[in-house]
Amino acid sequence: MLHFLKGEDADFGLYYVVVHLILKLGTTDAWVRGPSAVFAVASVGAAGWCGVRWRGWSTGLIAAVLLAVNPFWLYYAQEARGYALALFAALLSTTALLGALRRPDRRSLQLYAGATALLLFASLFAILYVAAQAAVVAARRLARRLAPAWLVAVGVAMPLMAWMVLVERGQLSWIRRPAAGALPTVVARVEGGWPALIAVLAAAAWACRRRSAPIGDVWLVTDPEPATTPLPAGWADAALRPSPARRFGRIQVVLWSP
């Protein structure tokens, strides 16, 4: 297992550990794809939970439905790859973030740090997702609250990051740099097509129509869509050097109110 991860998809290491254990129970397609299906179903529930914590039951229901019917997500949810686990971990991280911002006690910060560390091991490129969370938090001048959790999460994943950057950079060398004109198409594909994108934007505008959430949380951060790194940041990073932008399953959309 360790020999494999040294040269193949180390950024999805946690997923392969899970599959390695599952394959001891069976090696049919059902067993191989089973973990992805389970994490995909769990992600729909996590998207709803995240929406509820952010804006109430109506927003949670919309987030869950949008994810459950998204053709792009349904395609990757059936692949024997780590995308479903990465999205599930991203949703847990965002939900824990909302809790930590609402009540920044030790337990909430520990939950957020743990969920974020899990996310980084599920997909190392999700460091861009965590950076997007940090940017939103910093914009509200409360980054100091979350700094300990970020230090713990990044510190735990640092050995894997160092390996990918310093030792096994060849794992990324095959990815081509994206063209600027591809960005609109990528956004539409992630949402399941242009009509679906319009529906998502309309739902986001509706969710952000008020300055404060029903439960009094002024943090306007949500994560209702199927991906794992912030789209603009991922594209900008890929334009400078080889990155995962060509593999659209690793793109995250973060919607937040100005």
Walk me through this protein's architecture:
There is one protein chain. With 258 residues, this protein is mostly helical. It has one domain (2-256). The protein has 12 helices and 2 strands, in the order αααααααααααβαβ. Strands 1-2 form a two-stranded antiparallel ribbon. It starts with a helix and ends with a strand.
Question: How are the elements arranged and paired?
Answer:
Elements: H1 2-7, H2 13-22, H3 29-55, H4 57-68, H5 71-77, H6 83-102, H7 106-122, H8 127-139, H9 143-167, H10 183-191, H11 194-207, E1 221-222, H12 231-240, E2 255-256
Helix pairs in contact: 3-4, 3-5, 3-6, 6-7, 7-9, 8-9, 10-11
Q: Which range best describes the helical content: under 10%, 10-25%, 25-40%, 40-55%, 55-70% or over 70%?
A: 55-70%
Q: Uncertain spans, ≥5 residues at pLDDT below 50? A: 211-230, 241-258
Integer average pLDDT: 77
The 3D shape can be described as globular
Q: Indicate the proportion of strand residues.
A: under 5%
| Count of individual domains | 1
Class by SSE composition:
mainly alpha
Q: How would you write the strand order of the largest sheet?
A: 1-2
Helix-strand topology string: HHHHHHHHHHHEHE
Please outline the major beta sheet.
Answer: 2 strands, antiparallel
Spatial separation of the terminal alpha carbons: 45 Å
Say how many strands there are: 2
**Gyration radius over CA:** 18 Å
